[in-house]
Amino acid sequence: MARYHVWQHVLNEEGQPIEDVDISLYLAGTSTVVYIYPSETGGQVVTTVPQTTTDANGFFEFWIADSSDTYGYTAGQKFKLSWEKVGITSGSIDNMDILSFGSPVDETDSTNIAKNKYVSNLLAYRWEDHRTLTYSDSPHDIDVVDETDTDTTKDKLVSNLLAKDWEDHKDDVTHLVHGLEEVDPYDSNATNNKLVSNLLMNTLLSMATSAVSGAQIRNTQITSWTLSGVSYYADVIHTLNNSFVVITCYDQLTNLIIQPQDIESINPTTIRVWMPVNTIDLEVILSG
After folding, report:
1. Total structural domains in the chain?
2. 99 & 13 share domain
3. Is the pTM of this model over 0.70?
4. Could you give the CA distance from residue 242 to residue 232 in angstroms, rounded to a whole number?
5. In this structure, is residue 112 part of a structural domain?
6. Which residues of the chain have pLDDT under 50?
7. 196 and 280 belong to one structural domain
8. Of 8, 160, 164, 214, which alpha carbon lies 20 to 30 A from 31's?
């Protein structure tokens, strides 16, 4: 709400003040009485003419409210000011501009765009200065986000969209996060990326390096022999941790099964194969 101040002195031709002159205010070109206030704030509205009179100094003043007041008027409304006193010539001034075409800023109103608003030069300067800030500046003492920094001591300025993306991601229960699919243990398709847990990967790695119960198979070659007496032998390291393994030998040249002269268990990870000659290279397959 705003009130506009109207004041003037009434003087005679010699410049002397005239006291007790009746001052009346009407809408321009009419006899419609204008409502006025005797003070800038508060006070009772005056609804009859004359609304005021001059004092001993010939001075009078009053206030007119804008349209936000019950007894106010819209910007652009024009008025007629009249004066009258016995013994002097009455007169009037019509089509007076009293109300400004702009209105003071109402900071509680976010919808009304019909009226021009008055703001201070300082406030307008701050808005303009703020509008031209670059991302490297720190408006409101909040730093822009440095995505390479894990520092948590300073507040950071992020967009609402980015914050929403983070919050949505935190609560995402779908399996297609980042375009990765969940693991389907019944599908041998290798074209798609798969999303597995860290726990599952650790379990797989553990299984790959630990002993597994049940039969295991190893294969190796024998291409050199050691003479002992009249026979030849070669030791095969198999890491099956089993002193009693099943062994099958193939001639690498003919791919035929060869029956060794003897097979000796040295320890749970080593067997010794005996042959009567040293001219055959063997492919050895062990299970156990």
Report:
1. 3
2. yes
3. no
4. 24
5. no
6. 211
7. no
8. 8
Output the pLDDT for position 241: 86
Whole-angstrom Cα distance, residue 285 to residue 288? 10
SS3 of 217-282: the string is EEEEEECCCEEECCEEEEEEECCCCCCCCEEEEEECCCCCEECCCEEEEEECCEEEEEECCCCCCE
CA angle 211, 217, 219 (to 5 degrees): 125
In contact, 145 and 157? CB cutoff 8 Å: yes
Residue 140 resides in a domain: no
Last residue of a domain, one of 186, 210, 234: 210
Tell me the pLDDT tens digit for each residue of 158-196: 777 877 887 777 777 665 666 666 666 666 666 656 666
Give the DSSP H/E element, type plus range, for residue 61: strand 59-65
Amino acid, single-letter form, for residue 216:
Q
Q: Print burial letters for 196-215: b (CB count within 10 Å at least 16), e (below 16).
A: eeeeeeeeeeeeeeeeeeee
Cβ atoms 228, 261 nearer than 8 A: no
State residue 131's pLDDT score. 74
Is the domain of 178 the same as that of 243? no
Burial 141-176 (b: 16+ CB within 10 A, else e): eeeeeeeeeeeeeeeeeeeeeeeeeeeeeeeeeeee
- Domain check: are 198 and 254 in the same one? no
CA terminus-to-terminus distance, the chain: 98
Q: Looking at residue 194, what is its pLDDT? A: 65
Residue 185 lies in a domain: yes
Strand pairing of 78-84 and 22-27?
antiparallel
- Full domain range(s) for residue 68: 3-103
Q: Collapsing DSSP states into helix, strand and coil, what is residue 286?
A: strand
CB 84 within 8 A of CB 60: no
Please check whether residues 79 and 43 belong to one and the same domain: yes
